[in-house]
Design a protein that fits this description.
single chain, Arc Repressor Mutant, subunit A, D-Maltodextrin-Binding Protein, domain 2, five-stranded mixed sheet, 41% helix
Length: 294
């Protein structure tokens, strides 16, 4: 005989949230209804699933055993539902990507996409975080990843080698940028952490360099604009900064590139079965090939 399904759903939600209140909100029922379903489940199993001590809620040994299996089962169910919703709701096609890539690479090419796909609407989710493919609105993503973190679901789209760039005025004067050691006199413009700069400085032979100042920008567009305004030195991807470099708004003082990061197209295998996803992926592959053509 199977355990009552409502009780299992309530138990999994309470265990995951560690809260009857939050479980009730997720299940859109009252907290007393959740408690009633849990009591029925405990009666069916003839064992207690939670230990309550004041405001503290903990799983019993039997509860831990049950939750270990249900957690995987309900995660699979949620993902399966999201996959079906994604297939049904593939128009507009949801694309998760970094704002910088959207501005510098994708946006200038979209006119060509709509020429060959006039009836396909797109929805962009601009974020610096990895895509949440449990969201049925997100079908594919373009992510900035270290090469070692690129799994089988990743397709290299744009090589993202990084090199320092700054306003051309910083290449002259008493503290001109002539060698990597000169960066000690300047402000380094970072992302949310200094990992990329530390990797580049190590490659440049200055692993212990201490800059005059550090500024942190989550948005690459803002960070690159700060470099254009002469506020410091940023690591940029020359492929995406080509217009600013050609126009003289930025200059690269050193011919040293950190080549461990790139932009990858990330597509869960089941998403490739969606016709609109295939159209977008195939178009991106043609754009990538055109970029690489001599």
């Amino acid at each position: 005989m199977l355990a009552p399904l409502n009780g299992l759903r309530a138990f999994e939600a309470v265990a995951r949230h560690e809260s009857f209140t939050r479980a009730a909100q997720e299940l859109a029922v009252s907290q007393s209804a959740v408690s009633h379903q849990i009591r029925n489940l405990e009666g069916f199993l003839r064992t207690r699933l939670f230990e309550r001590s004041g405001l503290t809620l903990a799983l019993t040994q039997e509860g831990q055993t049950l939750y270990a299996g249900l957690r995987q089962a309900f995660a699979l169910i949620r993902q399966s539902v999201a996959d079906v919703q994604a297939e049904v709701e593939a128009s507009p096609l949801g694309i998760s990507l970094k704002p910088h890539f959207a501005l510098k690479w994708l946006a200038p090419r979209l006119a060509r996409f709509w020429q060959v796909n006039p009836g396909l609407d797109l929805r962009f989710f601009h974020t610096n975080q990895p895509a949440d493919f449990a969201d049925p609105q997100v079908h594919v993503s373009i992510e900035w990843r270290h090469g070692e973190a690129a799994g089988p679901e990743c397709i290299l789209l744009v090589e993202g080698a990084l090199t320092p760039a700054c306003h051309p005025a910083l290449l002259a004067g008493p503290r001109a940028l002539r060698t990597p050691a000169d960066l000690a006199h300047h402000t380094l413009l970072h992302e949310t952490d200094d990992k990329s700069w530390l990797e580049w400085l190590a490659k440049a032979g200055e692993p212990g360099l201490d800059p005059a100042h550090k500024q942190f920008y989550e948005d690459t567009n803002v960070r690159q604009q700060a470099a254009i305004e002469g506020q410091g030195v940023a690591l940029v991807c020359p492929r995406l900064a080509a217009d600013d470099l050609a126009a003289g708004r930025l200059a690269c003082p050193f011919d040293i590139r950190l080549d461990s990061y790139s932009y990858y197209l990330v597509v869960p295998p089941n998403r490739l079965d969606v016709p609109n996803v295939r159209k977008f992926v195939n178009w991106l592959m043609r754009e990538r090939e055109a970029d690489q053509a001599p």
